Amino acid sequence: MANSKRELFLRRRLRVRNKLRKVSDDRLRMSVHRSSKNISVQIIDDVAGRTVAAASSLEPSLGIAGKNNVEAAKKVGAALAERAKAAGVENVYFDRGGFLFHGKIKALADAAREGGLKF
């Protein structure tokens, strides 16, 4: 029997996360979530179990609430990079979850790199 789309997504997410943990070198994790209407990203310290910095397209300060396009993803990535630098974070590893690395996810990652994050 064929797996559902959701099951395939969950397997892909676990596969990506487990591979990244093997090579993480105790760096913080930059985790991305994309829904049909919004995109959010956070930098997580898995050892301490806390979020260091976060950004979302839902934030009124970014002025992109409800927009889920490439331009919104770029603004979210730039905002996260700025907040991460303020928190003293420079090196992270990029956890794309089960999402493919193209479109909005790629735009967010490129904007975060331009903002000074290294991954």
UniProtKB/TrEMBL annotation:
One of its GO terms (cellular component) is cytosolic large ribosomal subunit. One of its GO terms (biological process) is translation. The keyword Ribonucleoprotein applies. InterPro entries: Ribosomal_L18, Ribosomal_uL18_bac-type, Ribosomal_uL18_bac/plant/anim. Part of the 50S ribosomal subunit; part of the 5S rRNA/L5/L18/L25 subcomplex. Contacts the 5S and 23S rRNAs. Belongs to the universal ribosomal protein uL18 family. This is Large ribosomal subunit protein uL18. It comes from Thermohalobaculum xanthum.
